[in-house]
Amino acid sequence: MNRYLYRKMNRELRRMGFRAIAAGLLILLAVSMYVGMGTMMPSAEVSLEQRVDALNLNDLIVRTGFTSTEILDDLEGINGVEAAEARLNLASRVMAETEMAATLIGLDPGAPPDINMLEFAQGHWFEGPGEAIMEKGSAEKAGITLGDRVTILTEGGWSELEVVGLVNSPEFLFLPINPQSINPVPGNLAVVYLPMTWLQDSFNLGTDKVNEFVFLLVDQGAEDGIDQALVGETVLFKLHQDEIYGYALIKEDLGQGDSFLGVIAGLILIVAFFVVYSSFARMVQEQRREIGILRALGYGRRSILLSYLYLALLVGGISSLLGLAVGLPIGQALSDYYAELMFSTPSATIVLQPSYFITGALFGPLTAVLASLIAVWGTLRMEPEQAIKGAGLVGKRTKGRGRISKPRRANYMLLYAVRRMTRQKGRTSLLVLAVSFSVVMGSMSFLMLASFQNSIVASVEEGEGWDLMTDLAYPVNRMTAEKLGGPQALQVVPVARMALDWMAEGNGTAVAIGLDWGQDLHSFSLGQGTAPGSPGEAMVSYSFNKETALGVGD
Amino acid sequence: MDGIVVLENVVKEYRNGERAVRAVNGVSLSIERGSFVVVLGPSGSGKTTLLNIISGLVSPTSGQIRVAGKDISAMTDTQATKFRADSIGFVFQFFNLFPTLTVLENVEIGLALRIKDPRELRERTLKYLHMVGLEGMEGKFPDQMSGGEQQRVSVARALASQPELLIADEPTGNLDAETGETVWALLRNMNRETGTTVIAVTHWAEAAEFADKTLYLRSGRIERISGPGVDR
Q1: ipTM of the complex in this document
Q2: pTM (2 decimals)?
Q3: Residues 6 or more apart whose Cβ sits within 8 Å of residue A447
Q4: Chain A window 290-319: which residues touch B at a Cβ cutoff of 8 Å?
Q5: Which of A21, A549, B43, B205 is deepest in the core (most CB within 10 A)?
Q6: Rounded mean pLDDT of chain A?
């Protein structure tokens, strides 16, 4: 390409003006959205990992029956255990603006914990008696601020404490769940940190009783040693880091979000491809006469093709690079928003995956080059004389003869538009395809989400009559359970629930639920067989059954 | 036959639906080097097609064409492109200047294919712009000029590469009568000054006054040839 073609193409770009800018902007927008969406979840995930690492999120929690703290020395000495701490974890209720379920965590008041470190948003560590520290998110939900008084239900009745600290904890990244429960308690759990001694006194447990051990492990093999050390204890359940509900939920959310955004980002690129392709092809086709003149002057196909590819690379390349540059802050902003929402911290870093970078960087140039290549090549294959005449600019004549209709009033503008569309079959097809694709994909997404939501709502309304489920870490009798219901509870159904080992073809941990059959708050639909009516009979949940291949009569 | 342009039984067929239309129907002719030839005929008589065949812009369906001693009917596309760059200059009805290039650049863009030395390129361009009377207008863009001036640029562009043959397709078809006559005179003068053979197609019968030879076409055939010493 000589300098005159180079100069010509640069000025052509200016002459195209608005349309070149529009095509470039579209590429920029598509690439920036693509990169932004592709960056959001990986960045948030890295931030999450950095945050839980910095705050020493436990690798393992073991809940036992009430046991002596002396066992902690044995646990700390196990090979592969980096650190271990003992604590109390009790379920109760607190009264603030409203009464709500609470997890009470008893910690050694001598120093803040090293595992599941508490990040103080406001306030300070325990300095004296009658103090409580609250998890910040739960305090906000309960309308509790620093310095407020909070009333806690203990074995001896309600006790009032002052909130001296509001903290973030890696253990409760995403709060509206009860960490003791396999089922979530929707949005009303308070997490209250208390001095261990106060909690032991209030629940008449004795001064050295604990029921939970948290671990940082160097390697997962240490778990066998922990099992052995606790062999004489009642182990209620073990929870690994990736099973911590909030953490696992966010990780799952990140994974699903990444896939979902990947699909959306891909769709944006596909739709943008159609539009940019059409726009570029149109721009080049309008230069058909000039291509013909260049051919008449003696310019070869190669140099003409190169000059248009240069133009496409210039517009596509610059737009794509700008899209990348704009996409990164968009990704950072989205990631910040997500990280702040889910785990109360701005995104620490920005992660641009190579596949997104490469696709984003190549999208503009490739789309523009492809469109130009096809359009220019189509012109270059013509005889120069045809190109000079601008053949094809007005569209090919359709086969056969136009029908002469009876004299009548006609909308000639509409007629012209329809004929033009039918003659420009390729372009019209592309446009129709792009619009249909967008509409179908958009409608499918909405329908999918709507039907998913409807099915959840329908199944809950049909099968579940309860509004609130509260797990208690300690056994209570029916009288106490009914008292826990509070004045606004219409009905309280006591349920026995325990974590057990099960054994069939394989083995594992199961939840055993004991219910009165007459209760109507938690109904079942029987898939096969009959409801248990006598001792020695059990009913297995359908989803559990699917995994274990248990059948009726097994 | 001996001449700069020699056509032997040239046919060009176009397909119009299922029907084949012969735009040029068995034309044979010879044009002498340095002559000024005008092709006249009604619309659809095949004038422009004949011109496009001679210049290598269109391939004939059959027949042989020799231009400047080269058989262009047997040329590949690449050879034809190079041949046009080396031997043919074009003047079009609608000027066909590049709107984004200045007058100077419009001339140089064609010439640059033959002359690589920038100084020589510039000198040659200025010389021909001076010859067509456009000195001082080198920096203007086509849309800042009148139709007549644009056609002069087109003539300068066509002649600056010193082609053996200048092809002009309705060079005054888009100009008023007075300007048109000036352009015809310019073409004739350039033909005389540079010795370039000129073949021009037109509807304007008076153009024959400028010609050494006039071809009358009808239905793709040469109906009559007239000129000093020729009338058949």
Answers
A1: 0.84
A2: 0.64
A3: none
A4: 290, 293, 295-301
A5: A21
A6: 80
